[in-house]
Amino acid sequence: MPRRRPRALRLGLPATVPGRLKLLRGAALAASALLIAALVATGLLTHASWSDIRGRSAPQVTSATGLYFALGDMDAQLANQLMLGATPSLAADRRTAARVYAQRRTEAATRLRDLAEAAQGDPAAEKTVAQAIADFGSYEEGAARALLLSDQTARPAGKTDPGALAAYRYATQLMRTRLLPEADRLVTANNNAFDATASATTDQLSSARVAVLAAGILLLTLLVTLQLFLTARFRRIVNPPLAAASLIALGVLITATVQISGQQQHLRVARHDAFDSVVALTRARAVAYDANADESRYLLDQPHAAEHQQDFFAKSQQLMRLPSATLTDYDARSAAAMDAYRADHTDLRFTGFFGDEFRNITFSGERQAAENVIASYRTYQQDDRHLRALASSGHLTEAIQYCVSYRTGESNWAFGQYDTALRKLISINTTAYEQAAAEGADNSLSLPLGLASAAAAIAALAVLGLRPRLTEFR
Fold first, then answer.
1. Mean of the per-residue pLDDT values of the chain
2. Is 88 exposed, middle or buried (0-12, 13-18, 19+ CB in 10 A)?
């Protein structure tokens, strides 16, 4: 009967002890290289993602919402200038409106330039921005003509020149039907791109964690196997370099896993807890300024007052949607909704941008700041009813004065209080986003590279630990 070959040879393993040691050492070095590669790749991936988020994705969303805001207020200030006319007592208000109009026009032009630069290489975005730039130029032409005709006729407040009013109707129609929808599409497209980047990075980090765990466990298994082999063959209970290498490998494995989970947490906080609210609230701010413009349009263009009133209510519903509400009972329904919420924070009876925020309250001070926004918003809404009551009862000049006044208790003062409260709430979420993004970016490259260096040290220790045993066979 033929002699059977040793099991090691049947498996293709070296028959000698030095051969087996060299094989295990080579496997450990290969596993170390795999772990180093996984750690470096994870660091580069995370660093690139944070660079994209902080340098491109988030700023593009901010530019788009900033464009919507600037355009909406620009049209409001144009309407204010026209409806104030040449009445001497309102001259200071008209100068204020002219100054803010010029400021918003500059802001809108800057935002369009930034978005045009960011859109390069994206045909759909390039087309949208190019059309917005062209429409912006047409709007400016109509606005300039309206202001010129208004100045030439020098009529009192509420008695706008028909030619100036026709020019304004052309401009504001362009704003409402083309420019603002274009800006809103840019907001949506850029926000979706940011969300896709964050989601893809989160998924890639999950895959990276699996790769790091697999390489780390393989390395740790080989180190332990080496230690057991040495114990069995050389009667040495502990090989110090291999023991140190095993402990370092375990530490690298735990630290890397925690680091990757931490990066996913930073992404979740930055994108969803914070930036989702930033987007909802900055869109709310832009829509509110456009609604404020509807009040001015209502007073300026009396033949179309009902249309502008409906537009105001539609935007109010965008901000705080109350099911089945009308302009008549909107105030009572908003009061009831907030009473229910204060009694039970899970009882949210409104949606819209404010609803999005109230369903995503996360940070210290955010809930109180959100409630302050609603309180000041409701005051502004109540002032709107007073403004319309003045206009509908024949007191148009008084309604115009009330609309543009920043005196305590009047319409623009109330809107300013609301805007201040809203900006504070936005700031809470912006600060949280910036902190989470900064913490994620700060650790994105340095820690993985440090862990990769530790993995290289493991390989060196494995070589060092086996060298005395291999020399015994020379």
1. 89
2. exposed
